[in-house]
Amino acid sequence: MTYIVNDNCIACKYTDCVEVCPVDCFYEGENMLVIHPDECIDCGVCEPECPADAIRPDTEPDMEKWVEFNRKYSEMWPVIITKKDPLPTAEEMDGKEGKMELFSEAAGEGG
């Protein structure tokens, strides 16, 4: 089992989760984070830290697409281990539908 980040993170990018991760498996894109599924140790400490409820276990229904999404972008983006401010749109975008159309493949800064 692993944890994944889903589209609830897009345009929010809360980073509370990265500080509690014992294996530094979060990667930063321009407007969201992902988890490398092969590095995640399934400890679950990140899930309750996410204000947007964007971190889910891969055992939930229809998660395979998110495992592959997280794998793809974790191999392209830099690792992030330090908490940063969320995006300015975080509060208004939290919980919105249709956020995939806002997704950016661009890498974040990492750090």
From TrEMBL:
Tagged with keyword Plastid: no
InterPro entries reported for this sequence: 4Fe4S_Fe-S-bd (IPR017896), 4Fe4S_Fe_S_CS (IPR017900), 7Fe_ferredoxin (IPR000813), Fd_C (IPR022569), FdxA (IPR054829), RnfB_subfamily (IPR050294)
Pfam families: DUF3470, Fer4
Keywords: 3Fe-4S, 4Fe-4S, Electron transport, Iron, Iron-sulfur, Metal-binding, Repeat, Transport
Superkingdom, natural source: Bacteria
GO molecular function, one term: electron transfer activity
Presence of keyword Cytoplasm: no
Domain 4Fe-4S ferredoxin-type: 1-30, 31-60
Region of interest (Disordered), residue spans: 90-111
Role: Ferredoxins are iron-sulfur proteins that transfer electrons in a wide variety of metabolic reactions.
NCBIfam families associated with the record: FdxA_Protbact
Protein name: Ferredoxin
Organism: Yoonia rosea
